[in-house]
Amino acid sequence: MSTESSAEAVSQGIKRRRDEDDSPDYKRQRPNYVQPAFPRLRKLFTCLGEPSRFPLPESILHCAKSFTSAELDGEVAENLFSLFVNISIEQPLKVFSLAAALQCINNTESTQGAAVVKHIVERTQGYINAGDWNKVKLVLRFLIMLKPIIANFEAIAGFVERLLERAIELKKLSTGRNSLAEEVYRVVLLTIPYLVVSDSSEEMKKKAAELLEKSKDFNLYAAVKVEELLNPFVDGEAPYRLSDSLELVHIQLGNLVDADWELQLIYDYSSIVPASDFEKHPIEELQLPESLSSSNQSMSPEVFLKFYTNQQVETTPPVERIESTIFRDLLTDTLVNLSFNRQEVARQLIWFDNFLRPGLFAPRETSLERLSQAKPGSSTWKPEDVAVEAVLAELFRLPKSLVKSVYFHSVLIEACILAPHAIAPVFGRAIRFLYSHLEHLDVQVIHLYADWFAHHLSNFGFTWKWREWTDDLKLNELHPKRVFIRELIHKELRLSFPQRISETLPDELSDLVPEGDDVPPFTFALPDSPYSEQSRLVLQNIRDRKGADEFEEVFEEIEKKSEELHEESDPHDMVREIFVTAILHLGARSLSHVESWIERGLPVLGVLCPEKNSESQRQIMKIIFKYWKDQTGTAVQVVKKMMKHKVITPLSVVEWILIDSDVNSLTKGYSWELLGVGIEKANQLIKNAAAVPRTSEGEEGRELDEENLKEVDDNVETLKNTLNHIFVTIVKELSRPVQGDAKNEESVRWQRWWKEGFLRAVLRNYHSDYKDLQEPLKNLGLTDMFILNCIEQTAEL
After folding, report:
1. pTM for the whole structure
2. DSSP letter at 150?
3. Which class for 792: exposed (0-12), middle (13-18), buried (19 or more C-beta within 10 A)?
4. What whole-number distance in Å separates Cα of residue 559 and Cα of residue 608?
């Protein structure tokens, strides 16, 4: 093609061809790309059971056919086998469909079926040796669902029995609670129903009944009712009967025996994989180590929580039925083990009913009114209620949830975004249920509830039917409902700004929104302040990075002025207040700014606030909250920065909350938050000191001399004593009787309620940090039986 014709073609928008492509029939061939086997199969198997345009049987057969038709080398096959085990751990709802697909694979390629079963057994043995009992439970369940292709299934049933015997043996060796024995016992109890799910023969029912009968030899420790300490409802005012989850599972299994093991949970896969076609494979017996261990070091008893009770219809399984525990267990494992992907967790919550037998639940988005008119015999269980209740149970789990609470907030928010019509009404009922029982909730649960609800509202325009609660503003100012409304609005302010929040509130609640400036003024530097000239000089000196000695002159002027004005406070206190307020004002633009100004002022702060002077440190706490009185969330963050730079110690934070502040401050969210920050900081200091290398730097790595080693050990011991002092202070100050008169009888009652709740929550949350102080605390001369009972109960956590 000539240059002229080529240019003409380009100008006419015709694609230029190469010289040898003159044929009018020429068509460039697109490269034939074939996706590698592993990514393709991984996607198929990880999506198994999810909503699809294909029926579940077709999806299972397609997965099996794709696996057997692919050319897999040894490494890819091993990766797929590992994927199957990971799915059973991270997405346990899919284990039933996955087991059916593997049985289909076994029918076509029995060698692959044998290899899969062998790999699962090896992984199970590895988890047993490591003491990871949650994974043992999940992978063992996977093996049980593969029963049709296992030749010697009695090896698995025998292992379950030996595991139960070991749990009973461990329990008999203990005089009190044995968390390892309880953890292993729980694995056995939650495995028993799946034996019958996988094989409903009379022989298997008999074996399951024998295991249940033997499990009665495991005596749950009931001398101290630990569940009272873990109960989110206090004062014996729970809206339903609460019990320890292990005790509950045993009762539920007993009811299941009485119902002749009638448990139809999963899809009927017999039409996909006829049992007569299976080729079975022998497996090696699982072995128990001589000494069992647990990778879970913080295993506390668990109370089964419900949030959808006393409704016109029963939307969740009743607690006496084993289905309630099975569903909760499946959803909890999904939440915790798949926590690295909250979007996927939210999707599985919404599709929860897809993975189980059709007809087990009512259709999604069915209203309570329509459910109340349902035909006799049809299910009224709402899958969205069951799923959301499982998330809330983990969020409000005491003493601490298994994952950070903000993760559960995010999952619920994601679920509401994905399926607003199904999830939003469910949230509304849970929120109203919790609010209606606020005066009977544990103090920690009230704070968790406020944190969650504020976070949730921030993602949906802060809109709520506030008028439902406006009448409660007439209650006593310390009543939990009135406190909750105030704290909820303050938490909203931490996530937005006053004008935005005011627009969403009715007039009755707008007074709870402070009208302060975004950046509070430096009042000491205002023209009408007697310290105006000196304060402006302090600001300038800080900006100019003056040294501590260069502040002496202006500090002397402030002290002199304070004496002339006959201030009630010590002149040194006025110097400290002006300097610290100046730092806060200079750093008011952001937290990074305030940290920068704190660092600049450290030499002067070290002089004004010596490390061992608790009173001066507590004054700094007072100054911070005085300056940021309308933005207490910012004040909390500033206190954290001060602690980071050792201007304030953890002990001084605790003393300011419990000694310097009045009882009413215990109702404020920042008090609960700061107390936790102080204890955790004290713990962190101990860990950092203990982690100091005991050898000198260099290639030889010689051990430190005796003097330096003693210095390290003494530092650790000093920090431990400080932590002990913190707990002694907490117990002593919160055990002091509330002072009041007959005119304020209701206020006194609520002050006592908040003090007791605060103490119970602190002792429960940090029980492992003061375990060596159990007896010394009892010997403080305490006479309040409530406190003594709390100390005794926490010893069993």
Report:
1. 0.90
2. B
3. middle
4. 13
